[in-house]
From TrEMBL:
Residue ranges occupied by any GST N-terminal domain in the UniProt entry: 8-84
Protein name as it appears in the record: Beta-etherase
Coiled coil: none
Organism of this sequence: Nitratireductor thuwali
Pfam families: GST_C_7, GST_N_3
């Protein structure tokens, strides 16, 4: 049975951009499970599965609905234990929660501001109105002002990735010789930026950029199939 993944998109249904939905997509592919992306726009979410969720990703696996990227990964590991693990055991699951918090505080905090207007421009008129109102309330300023200093702040963002950079001198993935869900958490954030914005987050010779290229090629090039924003 094909699993459904409700996947956030803008006007172009072929360009899912949510970091959380990408985490779920990577996790499903890692498990080798057949899934179908259901393009879902911001204002579509209240009607998804008769109001089952306020956010995406959400998956339907038979009669089971699971929301939230981390909970989806946990569910997949428990429901399909005979397929490749996403965490490498209970200790790995606990440690991955640290990676998730670090990603939110370091990656999402910068990307969510730097790519804000680019994300806005991907949306249709009604979603743009919703996005502008909700984000201006969150940031306390006009949408256009939020990413205005991204060129000045990107150097500090790159410096904050030094723990990852030094890790990749020793091993090819966060998970070791192969990827685990910790890799997908970070790759999901960078894919969010890649699909949404042409702004250069990383320099080409950065070990983090080289690791991300490896992630783009995983699972038959799942993430690379969506072209980068131009």
């Amino acid at each position: 049975m094909t699993i459904l993944l409700y996947d956030l998109v803008g006007t172009d249904a072929s360009r899912p951009f949510s970091p959380h939905c990408w985490k779920a997509a990577f996790a499903l592919a890692h498990k080798g499970l057949k899934f179908r992306s259901v393009p879902t726009r911001f204002l579509d979410i209240p009607a998804v599965e008769d109001g089952a969720t306020k956010t995406v990703p959400l998956i339907r696996d038979g009669d089971k609905l699971v929301g939230g990227s981390f909970d989806i990964a946990v569910y997949l590991d428990e429901a399909y234990p005979d397929r490749p693990t996403l965490f490498g055991g209970e200790g790995g699951r606990a440690a991955t929660r640290f990676i998730e918090r670090w990603s939110h505080l370091t990656l999402h905090a910068f990307i969510g501001q730097a790519a804000l207007m680019d994300i806005h421009d991907m949306l249709g008129p009604q979603d743009r109105a919703y996005f502008r109102k909700s984000r201006e309330e969150r940031f306390g300023k006009a949408l256009e002002e939020v990413p205005a200093d991204r060129d000045e702040k990107v150097a500090a963002f790159r410096e904050a990735l030094e723990p990852l950079r030094t890790l990749f001198w020793k091993q090819p993935f966060v998970g070791g010789e192969g990827p685990l869900f910790g890799d997908y958490i970070i790759a999901g954030a960078l894919q969010w930026a890649r699909v949404s914005s042409p702004f250069a987050l990383l320099q080409d010779d950065d070990p983090v950029a080289q690791w991300f290229e490896r992630c783009l090629d995983l699972h038959g090039g799942l993430a690379r199939r969506v072209p980068a924003a131009a």
